[in-house]
Design goal:
About 30% of the residues lie in helices and about 25% in strands. The protein is α/β, with parallel strands linked by helices. The protein has 3 domains: about 5-220, P-loop containing nucleotide triphosphate hydrolases (Rossmann fold); about 225-315, 2-Layer Sandwich (Alpha-Beta Plaits); about 330-370, no CATH class. The strands form 4 sheets. The protein has a 6-stranded mixed β-sheet, with helices on both faces. A 4-stranded antiparallel β-sheet has the order 11-12-10-13, sandwiched between helices. Strands 2-1-4 form a 3-stranded antiparallel β-sheet, covered by helices on one side.
Length: about 375
Amino acid sequence: MNDAVITLNGLEKRFPGMDKPAVAPLDCTIHAGYVTGLVGPDGAGKTTLMRMLAGLLKPDSGSATVIGFDPIKNDGALHAVLGYMPQKFGLYEDLTVMENLNLYADLRSVTGEARKQTFARLLEFTSLGPFTGRLAGKLSGGMKQKLGLACTLVGEPKVLLLDEPGVGVDPISRRELWQMVHELAGEGMLILWSTSYLDEAEQCRDVLLMNEGELLYQGEPKALTQTMAGRSFLMTSPHEGNRKLLQRALKLPQVSDGMIQGKSVRLILKKEATPDDIRHADGMPEININETTPRFEDAFIDLLGGAGTSESPLGAILHTVEGTPGETVIEAKELTKKFGDFAATDHVNFAVKRGEIFGLLGPNGAGQIDHL
């Protein structure tokens, strides 16, 4: 087992012209053996922190150690045991899968029988064996990420830094990517996976939640979700549509956040607030409001301070579309489109009703764009 750890002591990074630090003084410890999520919205400081840990950015104050190495002072020794996969990984799209692997093996000085065994293991691990002769530029988004991961793993690093690897990857490939990463973590590797996707955060054993450079929470996602018990509710009104109902609710001081969820409005109440506060609030119509199971997203948004009370500029100018609620406005019957012998859509039937958000979900090549 690898007992690798990352330790941060007052680590801080500022950029010229910024009022606040990109990463405020940060203290934490990250352990090996499971996936730790680095979670936050765009601009939270995730990539800046990753780059400091990889030795690509020098901190302005404080220190970091990665399995005992200072990323700046011991960069050579660290790079021998660290794999870093940035958001835009440096695959050469005019090289084949195997040529990319050979390039990274050259950079890592992996030669001879060790190279042969490493490639065999990585190609099996990533299921890229049948595609070694394909140009990297011709791979799907998910396959590119798998190749990027394989290249990062050449040399058998003890620490793996993954900067938003799930972006632009279809659901099936993303699941396969997670399975691979969990397997690596189970073998004792220290893995830090950054993301702004909250469903990915829930797959991590531990998370670091950041916003505007500050660390807001470190711990298990489930533990944070449990703090929202008794504060998540679903609300409907027999006399008012969900959009108007949401606009009213967000103006109430007892509401931390709200969103339309299916046929209901999901509300997150502030601490000490009760459903009766909402029922009897000035300006609220007759409502039905019932407690629901809290989600990690509820806790995350509440930790950021909630949605605020400002009205959406877009919502203020959108007019109400006339028509009968629930009527079918788009209908497909036996929808078929072929390219030669390949059926992009094959006798598909569906209906979209007024007021619905209708999702087309599937992996790359499933035909969503052809349906549209």
